[in-house]
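Box 3.1 A note on notation
Throughout this textbook, protein chains are presented in two layers. The first layer is the amino acid sequence; the second is a token string describing backbone geometry. Keep the layers aligned when reading.
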Amino acid sequence: MGKSALFYALTGKYATISNYPGTTVDVAIARMRDIEVIDTPGMHSLVPVTGEEEVARRLLEEVDLVVHVVDAKNIKRALPFTLQLIEAGFNVILVLNLVDEAEKLGIFINEKMLEQRLGIPVIKTIATEKRGVGSLKEEIRRRIDGGKDGRQVISSAPRLRRLSRKLKRCLKETTAFQKGHGILLLLKDPISLEMVKKERNYDKIVERVNVSSVLPYEIMREIYEDAEEMLKGVMRYEETSKGLTKKIGVLFLNPLFGIPLSILSLAFIYLLAGYIGAQILVDFIETWFEENINSAVNAFLYQNVPNYWDQGVDRRRLRDYNAEHQIRDSNNLPDSDDLLPRFFDSGGFKITTENRLSARWSLQENRNEL
């Protein structure tokens, strides 16, 4: 969804990473001038399931504004959470990020129409290009200074509305009521239940909340149905020209062409790795590369690196010589002067008195080792 990319587009490169108190969950904090911005862990519902979601849920209680960042091409999946945030009374801005990717897929969103239906600002952005970031900054300041608009966006069924009214009467003087957390209590949100634990009518609140075990599912069904209804006419789909990769993907998914193409792909991989790599490339390295490149490099190193011959090159070549001439006993080794031409010829070495003595000493050392 590009949440962290948008965070850095708003605040710059510098952020403080710390653990939320009492947890090992990382939270990034930075500043947009005089406004502190927190990059919370991702969440998909106001009723937390994981430890990261619980941290994000608790952080929501401490902020003045929630910027809900969603992937524009997956707005159908994300909008129910936006409705939960609005219904719970949070001050919300909806950001449709990655709109360029959505439009490439032929998905176009009328953000002005969606804004009217939700009653909150809806802003399109491309965080990596900082498009729309300026407008988002302005809207953030406007919402913080002007506050939120109390609004009911979920069209609950009559039974749910009755339960909600009864719950509101119990919560009339509580912090949870002031924050609009009635729906969260009906969803059996543990954090909201914790907030009203010290209320004198706590038992009555719990009784209202536990009136039905299927109540949370009914509420979530209402939320998803409302989200689907709100998107009608907001999203427009257009046919886009398919690129080569998409066309190949369609062919692979077709039962008629998929199996033959899979077999051809496996054959190509075998040809690439088994024949070209293991045979042609290996032969090239062992013949032409060894004769033309490796020997020249060894010759250069011998001439320019002190004691290069003593560092192991002669040992390898001496063993090769032994293997080639089937010499098992080191006492049968020929004299060093007889070996030197063989060792030096392939590399084009210039045999001087100095390097001849060095090579002779090294050969003698290897003879002793063998």
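The radius of gyration is 37 Å. The first strand starts at residue 16 and ends at 19.
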